[in-house]
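Quick log. Single chain, no ligands specified.
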Amino acid sequence: DVSYVDVKGQVGRVMHSGVKYIDRNSSQPSTTIPKGASISDILLPTDNVYYISGQYGGWRESYLVPCVYKTPEAFNSEAPALVGKKLTIMMPIMIENVQNDYTFTFNIDELTNEAK
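-> predicted structure:
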């Protein structure tokens, strides 16, 4: 029952590691974590996974935050609109049969155009 809200305010489903991309929109079972154990996983919005057909096609993932621009001019005109936006993940966690709803918010405070 985890949900995701993107920078445009749109709610979407998420998938986690181990789920085949072709099954990304299918129901996914809950993950049980025994007391004293831990888990390392990923959350990927299902809308960010897509397939391209053709000779060089295959499964692709798009960025959570658009961060690749073809030119510095494109960066300067598009990236500033993302500053001040946020991403949110809402995650219900059951502890001793009590649901605890956790909300994680990631604010975009600054974007820089640095060559690496």
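The beta strands are 3-5, 11-16, 43-45, 49-52, 58-61, 86-95, 98-107.
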